[in-house]
Amino acid sequence: MVYVDEIDMDQEGIAEMVLDENAIAQVARPGTSLKLPGTSQGGCPSPAVRPVTQSGRPLTGFVRPSTQSGRPSTMEQAIKTPRTALTARPITSASGRYVRLGTASMLTNPDGPFINLSRLNLAKYAQKPKLAKALFEYIFHHENDVKNALDLAALATEHAQFKDWWWKVQIGKCYYRLGLYREAEKQFKSALKQQDMVDTILYLAKVYLRLDQPVTALNVFKQGLDQFPGEVTLICGIARIYEEMNNISSAAEYYKDVLKQDNTHVEAIACIGSNHFYSDQPEIALRFYRRLLQMGVYNCQLFNNLGLCCFYAQQYDMTLSSFERALFLAENEEETADVWYNLGHVAVGIGDLNLAYQCFRLTLVNNNNYAEAYNNLAVLEMRKGHIEQARALLQTASSLAPHMYEPHFNFAILSEKVGDLQRSYTAAQKSEEAFPGHVDTQQLIKQLKQHFAML
Prior knowledge:
Strand content: under 5%
Helix content: 55-70%
Largest sheet: none
Number of helices: 24
Distance between the termini: 75 Å
Order of helices and strands: HHHHHHHHHHHHHHHHHHHHHHHH
Number of strands: 0
Structural class: mainly alpha
């Protein structure tokens, strides 16, 4: 039987997000909610420097389940946004994933299921602790029958006179899967009173994160560190929460603590590397990505990042060879599109606008929903004087990625140049909404207001 790690496997589907009844505070205090990512500004880079996802958070250096789930404001936006890790589009449903996880974990007989759950006398098996634990894992992970698993766990914990912490954790897992987060919280807390375990702390923090209580989750992790000093998974959990709350400087500190305990932790190295890159230190980022290469990580994303770091660190001899390797290792069209998009930036950097145009076109051939490429193509079309084409490209970009300020701002500038002041003002307001601190947008809005005052 394949053992499944439940701790990291947490993806919210559209149904779980939009139909969430566990909302505690609609208007949370700044820095206490993951639903309002822009509230905590502790060392957070501006969107002009570091691109943001649909959920308003800066791109992380490492794709994990939580980075792919944003909280879309409307159902329409949740469904429209393209399905890539960069856009934080929620997957359709988490339940399908649990079913797929179990399909290959145990061979079944051709003449019927391995165990017929409907005929089992759960009360009988609950009295045999060793057998009950194996049976529970089979029902929970392989059959994905949470209700029967919960019944078995309840009977078994009763037989153990509520003294076995393991069964309490399993009941908590069942409640979590069923969406009963407060009941799950009680079970995990009860289990922790009997036995301090790292896994239980991680499950409890996961419950608080789903209830949108990151500060409580941080406290749980910090209390866990008192019991288990230097435990990598707990430090990493704290770093992830800080990163999701836009507190990038604190996240980087905790990722460095992770590396002090485990210097081969891929997520920590990747996140610190991306943080240095967006802090204008490509040479230092290059050292972290080289470290990943030495550890045996060999994939498209790594060579893509190496190529960008080499370009911005002015090590031009390595840039193109890294991108060539990235193209060779790309496993799907979205990865290929990322590489071509970055090559387009390199081409703009060296002043070859024809090559840049071709690269951005190739990006769109591989991924038709790449809003950034539409935006950059529009700028190149504007330079050529093709106003209508530029306008169409910018409208496509802003509809694909309403969270980006660049297409709105460029559209506002373009409309202002051709004298369409009303459209320019509307687009400038959208740009300001996406990035309130953008000085050029504020100046444009000021100019337009003066125009309107003169009319």
